[in-house]
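Q: Sequence in, structure out?
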Amino acid sequence: MNTEQTLQTLTVQHHELDDRLHELTAKQHLSEPEHVEEVTLKKKKLQLKDRIEDIMRRRRQDHAHG
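A: Exactly. Output:
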């Protein structure tokens, strides 16, 4: 998988997590499993964001030095 495909995959995953988080936050009250899911999704979403930003930063550096 090339960098562009990886970036696309990570972006889609990030969007899917964001959609699910919106579903959870729209609820008045969360059950314990939903609360655990919310916390887990937030952590995964942040990890994906960090990976996306890292790839984009390296891409910019490569273009600057290329």
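The radius of gyration is 15 Å.
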